[in-house]
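Record pair follows.
FIRST:
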Amino acid sequence: MTLRISTAGLYAQGLQGMLRQQQHVARTQQELVSNRKLLHAADDPAAMAQSQRLDHALSSLEQNGKNADTVEHRLRSQESALSDVGSQLTRARELAVQANSGALSQADRKSISDELRAIRLEVLSIANREDGTGRRLFAGSRDGVIPFADSGGAVAYAGDDGRNLVEIGPDLLIADTDAGSDVFMRVRTGDGTVRGSVAAGNTGTGILQTSSVTDHAAWNGRALRLEFTAADAYRVVDASGAVLSSGPYAPGDSIIAGGVQFTLSGAPAGGDAFTVQRAPNQDIFATLEGLADAIEAPLALPGDQARQSNAIGTAIGDLSTAQDHMLSIRAGTGRRLASIDGAADSRGSGEISLQESLSQLRDVDYAEAASRLALQLTALDAAQKTVLRVQTMSLFDRM
C-alpha cells in the first residue's frame, strides 16, 4: 500500500494543529479574564443548569433584602407615629385630670377643651402620615387614598382592614404596617373589659369612681344596671330586669353583684342609675371629641357638675386603655422589626453558602488555569515552529 503525501497536505495538517492550539489558548485566556470556566451551556449542561438555579436563588435573596428594607422603613415610621400618638394621649389625659376639678372657671375649661381639640387634630394628622415615599402608613392594603377624613366631628376611615404580607426570606413573610381601623378606630374603652356609664337623667351628685369585674364566671359578659330606688337604697338588675342584688346604700360603699363591683362617691338621688357593660370599641377621635364636649359643657343645673365629673372620669379610663392599646401595637411592631433583623442574618448565611456553591461550579481556579495556559502556549509555540519548518521543506528534498 502506498501513502501519498502532498506538500499542500503537509501545510494543511500543520495549520490545523496550530489553529487548535490557538483555540485552546484563547479559551483559557477568556476563562482567566472573565473568571468563568462555564462560558457556554455546551461546556457542561448539568453544571450550567445548576448555576442558573443558584443565580435565581441569589436574585431572590437580593429581592428579599430590598423588600425587608422597605418594610423595615415603614415599620420604623409606624413606631415613630405610634410614639407621637402616645405622647398626645398622655397630654390629653393630663388635661382631663386637670379639668376634673370644680375650682376651674368656664374660661379655664374652654381653654382646656380647645387644647384637646388641637390634640385631636394632631392625632388625625399622624393617622394620615406618609412613609416618605408617598404611601400612607395606616391605609391598610390600599394605596392612593387618604385613610382618615373628618366630617362634622366624626372621623371616617377610607382604608381597609388588610395588611400586605411581604416576603423577606425564603418562605418567610412579614406583615406590613397595621391597618388604621385596628390602630385608631377599634379601640377598647373602660378598663378594656368593662365600661361604666351614667344615665343621662341623673339628678344626684353620685359619681361612678370605678367599675370592675370581680368574678368573670358570674358576670359572663352581661350588662348590669345599678338603680337607686331611693337615695339610701339600691338594686342591681340585668338586661332582662331580674334583680341580682338589693340593699341599703351609704356614700362611699362598694356594691358587688353579678360578678361586678361598683364604687361610687357623692350622693345619688332616687331614680339615678349607673350601667356597666362589656367594654365597647370606640375610635380615639370620638373619645377626644367627647371629652372636649364634656369639659366645656355649661354647669347650670345642680347635677351638671356630677355629670361632668362622670363623663371626664369615663374619658380618663378610655384614654388609659387607648394608651395601653397603642403600646400593644408598638410591641407588635417591635417584634416584626426583630424578625427582620433575624431574617437579615439568615439571608446573609444563605447568600454565603450559595456563593460558595456557585463559585465551585463556574469560577476559575487561577492556579490550574495559569498552568494550563503555560502548557498550551508551549504547545502553540511548538506547533508554530513545526509549521515554519514544514513550510521550508519540499518533497523534492527527498528525491
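SECOND:
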Amino acid sequence: MTVSFVLPEVTPVETINWAEIPSPAFVLDESRLRRNLALISQVQRESGAQIIVAFKGFAMWSTFGLLREYGITGATASSLNEARLAYEEMKGEVHVYAPAYSDEDFPRILELADHLVFNSFTQWVRFRPQVEAARAAGRTVHVGIRVNHEYGEVDTDLYNPAGPFSRLGVTRREFREDLLEGVDGLHFHSLCENDSSTLERTLVAFEEKFGEFLPRMKWVNFGGGHLMTRAGYDLDRLIRVVRDFKARHNLHVILEPGSAFGWQTGWLVSSVLDVVHNVKDAAVLDVSVSAHMPDVLEMPYRPRILGAGDPPEQGQHREDDGTLAASGHPYIVGGTTCLAGDVIGEYIFAQELQPGDRVVFDDMIHYTMVKTTFFNGVKHPDIGILHVDGNYERVRAFGYEEFKAKLS
C-alpha cells in the first residue's frame, strides 16, 4: 500500500524580510502549519486513527481554528490549566492524562474531560467514586489506565518514559486485572520524535505484555512522539501499522503527537545587541537560551541558524588568535541573561555581525514556546503569525505585568 500525499506549498524562506519583524519574536508560518495539518489530516483519514494535538508540545491557541479546519477535533492535556485551554479554545474532545491528580484539581478536571487516563490503579481507586457519580448523572467519561510495556528506543534518558524505574505507567507485574471494571481503554507513551518502525516494534512489546486485556477495551491510545511530518518519516508504514492493529483487535486508536503539528513551522527571530571579544568573538542576542530555548540545554541539541554554518571539525586549523583560517566569521552565540551557561555554541556567519543584525533560529515552535520563562526579567519574545498572504500579525506581546504576575 502506497498513499499519495498532496500537500500545499510553503513560503520560501529567502522571500521573508526578517528586518520587518520586531525582535525578539516567535514567528509561526501559516503556510508551513497548513502543510503539516494537511498531512496529519490525510494520515487520520487513511489510517482510521483519531489524531489529537498534545498541548505539551504545541499549544498556540490562536491557531486552533486552523486545526479544526483540517479535522483535528481534540486535544490532550496534562493539567487542569491545559484541560481548560482544550475545553475553552480547542472546543472539541478533551483528553487528560497526568502522573497524578490532586484532590483540589480533580473535580474540575472531571467536569472538563471526555477521556481520563490514570497513571496508577491507586489513583483510579481514589477517584473512581467521583467518576461513577458523574456517569450516573449522565456524563460520558471514558477511563483509561496508562501502562508501561518497558520497551523504549529513546536515546536521551530525560525523555524516555519506559526507562528503568520510571514513575510513568503501570508495568505488567503491577497491573490489576481485578480493578478494570469501569475502565474502557489503555494508554501507552514511549516514543520521542521516532519513526513508525519504532511504533511497530513498540506494539509488539505492548501486545505481548497487555494483549490479553484488549478484548475488554474499547480504545487504545498510542501516545505521542509520532513525528509524521518530518521528512523521510515512513507514513505508509504508520498507516499500515494502525490499520493492522485495528483489524486485529477491533479497537478505536488514538494518536496524540505534539511535535508533528509544530515541526518546522516557524522561527525565533532575534537581534544582535553586542559583540564581545575574548580571544573569540561572542554575539550577545536579545533572547535567552535558558529562558526561551530551554531544550537546547536540557536535551541537549543544537538549533540551526538561518544563513549560518557549523564550526570546523576538531583539529581543523585555526590561527593563533582563535579565528578560522578558512573564510567565514565565527561567533559564540549566547543570550542576554547573567547565566554564564546561557550559550548555544559556535557558528560560522558569512558576514561580520553588527548590533541590530537579525539572527533567526529555525524550527522554534514545537516544545519551545510552551517552555519559556521570565528568568532575569529579560524581554519575552512576541508571538506572531506570518500569514499566507505575506502579512505579519503580532498576536501576543509580553511586558512587565506578565513578568510581575509570576512573582509575589
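COMMENT: The first strand starts at residue 25 and ends at 29.
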